[in-house]
Amino acid sequence: MKTITSNIDHSQFYKKVNFQLFLILLLMVACFFTWSENVVITRGIKVVGRMGVLFSSYLVYKKIINYGAVDNLKWNNVMSIFFYGTYLFLGFASFMWSTNVGYSALQWFMTTQTLVFCYYFVKCLFLLDKFFPEHPIRLYNLLGDACFVLLSIFVVGMWVNPDVFFRMTHGGEEARLGGYMMNPNELGMLAGVGVAGLIFDLRRNHKRWWTIFKLAVMFYALYATGSRSSLIGALLIIGFHVKQSSNAKLKILIITGMIVVAPVAIWKVVLKDGDTERLEEVMSMTGRLPFWTALINEGLPREPLLGFGFMRIDYKEYFQSTHTYPGKMTHNTFMQVLMNLGFIGITVIIFQMIFTFKGIAKENDEKRLMLYCILIPLIINSLTEFGIYGESNYGILFYQLIILYISFRDNHILSPAGRLYLKKRRPDLAV
């Protein structure tokens, strides 16, 4: 089925839908932050806010259909979404053996709720691509702008109210952007995703100087978080773009920027001004390596096949070995699954990721490059923090967007009812 639109102006519709998609994505990501130290307010934002945003994504989906589209999409790359569903099913089943059923259930429902949100959000983009092929709405632009707005709040806040927006670490010696509202490494990952999105705006010459300004704010925020892993991720994204780009001027601009920024950033953020004690800390990944060793040697043998239950890593609230710090989560998303759901769970997600990468590899050049670039900060963050299979966070949201973005394709056959509906709603559309 091919669709051809006549010269009817849909620009106002595009503007409204673009703003609505941007706003609900912004609010969805914002709902993962701890905006208040008051537990009741925080829970209200996370529960009521996220459900409201989910419902809003459904309303935008219905708005596009009512304006003139038919949801005749078919599933694509089904093994990727199948194994993700299997992972969630196993997590749900783990309520039967979880060491804290209430906590496991809360984490499972939040992860599932995010998946439903992504389902309708991605369908909106696919319906626009099919029935409004000339529309200017792009996922990378929505992601980049949403990340920019949130990070701008923190950049302004660090100057206006540093006590709130900075988190003191290493005995008060180091101030890192994030405060009580967000883990600095997670905030750095958000900056990486924003960079991945906005570089595509730069590639297509979309509001060039405004985009450069947004990227500068993003890198400044990334630097202020002090996140080594996120900085490495951002540099990898840039290098990946340089390698793929055929635009000589863009390559020169990006390489010049990296030559100026990278040495200072690496010396300050990764090497910590050459401080010997801090370099030793880097080598042990801030104590993570001994913690992971203890988990494998002491924790895993207790529940090797099915784990301790969804988002649980021990019989108690915290796992602690004789020579490690107490931890409620593993600071590695793959280790988290291994402890949560055992060897069965880790096998499921390995296959899930294999089919996800295979699905991405089949997409067109721009879409493939975009998805790989978004994956870079997510995968790096997954090695040291909550990650794509950890406790509920916006890294999961972004990964689910990627999974669903490769899970639909156009159905070339319209039902008679669909044809009649389009004839009524879209007389400008030749089907």
Number of strands: 6
Uncertain spans: none
Tell me, briefly, the overall form: globular
Mean pLDDT over the full residue set: 87
Strand content: under 5%
Q: Encode the helix/strand succession as letters.
A: EHHEHHHHEEHHHHHHHHHEHE
Give the strand order, joined by hyphens, for the main sheet. Answer: 1-6
Number of domain modules: 1
What structural category do the secondary elements indicate? Answer: mainly alpha
Task: Determine the N-to-C terminus distance.
Answer: 7 Å
How helix-rich are the residues, as a percent range? Answer: 55-70%
Per DSSP, the total helix count is: 16
Calculate Rg over CA atoms: 22 Å
Major sheet summary line: 2 strands, antiparallel
Subcellular location: Membrane
GO molecular function, one term: ligase activity
Pfam families: Wzy_C (PF04932)
GO cellular component, one term: membrane
SSE topology:
Blueprint: E1 4-5, H1 11-30, H2 39-68, E2 74-75, H3 78-93, H4 101-131, H5 139-160, H6 162-165, E3 166-169, E4 174-177, H7 184-203, H8 208-225, H9 228-244, H10 248-270, H11 276-283, H12 288-299, H13 333-361, H14 365-384, H15 394-405, E5 408-409, H16 416-425, E6 429-430
Antiparallel strand pairs: 1-6, 2-5, 3-4
Helix pairs in contact: 1-2, 1-5, 2-4, 3-13, 4-15, 5-7, 5-8, 7-8, 7-9, 7-14, 9-10, 9-14, 13-14, 14-15
